Amino acid sequence: MGRRRTIRTAALAATLLIGCSAGLGIRADAQSVDPTWTLSPSTVSNGSTVTASGTGCLDPDTDDGTGMQAVVIIPHLAYPNSDNPEGTAYFLSDPVAADGSWTLTATVDTREDFFGPYEDFATTASAGCLRGGTEPIFTYEQTYDIRYTGQQPSSTLPPTQVPTTTAPPVSGPAASPAAPVAAAPTFTG
């Protein structure tokens, strides 16, 4: 399956996950601790790294994390296109560990051509657990506010070097200064 199709499939699964989360609810069976996840940092910009980790992403049929994946969903953090008109970023974790724990690290795309270098906005990140990377199992209860700050110019830019020029050497004898002339002004007209 191609990368574009995989992203579309994950996006569809995430949409179903978020849309159906009220009906699916959080697992309430044998798991004694509610699933949790964290995200850092809370402020991102072009090219920055986002790290997320979580627990409790277990298959409800086996109570095992094998074959599961977590997805972190951050609206407006990806370049919009016809498949993703709102520019929602979908970050899939590596396969979940057998105990249901997971981590992911992702890089924020450079978006200067879409929002400009000084765009600043807030959005909310959410996460969910997927069976096989496509089937929604549950949505984590926690959400995290994210602020996108664009790519601000650095205030510590090194000074620009101005090239120094020297006059070319003069060949021949140096000219003597001009002598003042004493005369009355003449008007024509």
Q: What would the principal axes of the Cα set say about the shape?
A: rod-shaped
Helix content: 10-25%
Measured distance between first and last alpha carbons? 94 Å
**Number of DSSP strand runs:** 9
Helix-strand string: HHEEEEEEHEEE
Percent in strands: 25-35%
Provide the structure class. Answer: alpha+beta
Number of H- or I-type helical stretches: 3
Mean pLDDT, to the nearest integer, reads 75
Give the uncertain stretches in residue-range form: 1-9, 11-30, 153-160
Rounded to an integer in angstroms, the radius of gyration calculated over CA atoms is 32 Å
Biggest beta-sheet profile: 6 strands, mixed
Describe this structure in words.
With 189 residues, this protein is α+β, with helices and mostly antiparallel strands. The chain is built from three helices and nine strands, in the order H-H-E-E-E-E-E-E-H-E-E-E. The strands form two sheets. Strands 2, 4, 5, 7, 8 and 9 form a six-stranded mixed sheet that branches. It has a three-stranded antiparallel sheet with strand order 1-3-6, with no helix packed on it. A hairpin with a 3-residue loop joins strand 7 and strand 8.
